[in-house]
Amino acid sequence: MDRDGELRIIRAAYAKQVLAAAGVSDDRVEEAFAVIRREDFLGPGPWPILRWLRDYVPSPTADPVYLYTDDLVGILPERRINNGQPSLHAHLIHRASPAIGDHVVHVGTGTGYFTAILAHLAGAAGRVTGIEYDRELAARAKAHLASFANVDVVEGDGTLAPFDDADVIYVNSGCTRPAESWLDRLADGGRLILPMTSGAGLWRHSSGRHGQGRRGVSDRAPRKRLFRKVDFSGCDLSVRRRS
Q1: Which of 32-36, 169-173, 204-208 has the highest mean predicted lDDT (pLDDT)?
Q2: Alpha-carbon separation of residue 66 from 22, 58, 61, 202, 224 (angstroms)
Q3: Which residue, among 188, 178, 35, 32, has the nearest Cα to 107 in the 3D structure?
Q4: Do 191 and 238 form a contact (C-beta atoms < 8 A)?
């Protein structure tokens, strides 16, 4: 078997493990995690992987196999900005339920890995608008996603950047309340997933007029909070607009 074949098997096993850790059974999300190549979005290895109680540890080599674990990987490690924990994103993406043909807005696209997963789920009939505030990350995301015809990456403030009505708004940057633009541009039946931050680094979904939520953790939280365990069975961080 050639190396590409080996990595396809590794990605398939990774996808199964990630969804098991998230407590999710979702064939479409599993397929997306198995198909999208994480190494295409994290630059050349070795990669800084955030290890339990050890801070960032470089992968032993640039072999992509080291990326297929349920770990955060630094994308701007000097600023403690990471490609987030796959199982947490699997849980939240499952809750968002992007469907074929949906318009998905991804606020805080980073370097594009989870944007690519959302694009896979939206399909050729759908589209994804990725919004990234950081200029360097936005440039990297644009380069990484250039081959995705259904993705447009915008550099800008996710609370101010204009976008068309969205079926899913998936927010990956901390906020103290939902932006009015997100609520205004959420289509009927649309889903909004967002982290509500506090000074302690925990996040809580504020129900507003659409629903309720419980605690989780942010992958951009202060370091001492990065390893707090998430009970996915009790984690509801979504808002759904009634049709």
Answers
A1: 32-36
A2: 20, 10, 8, 28, 24
A3: 178
A4: yes
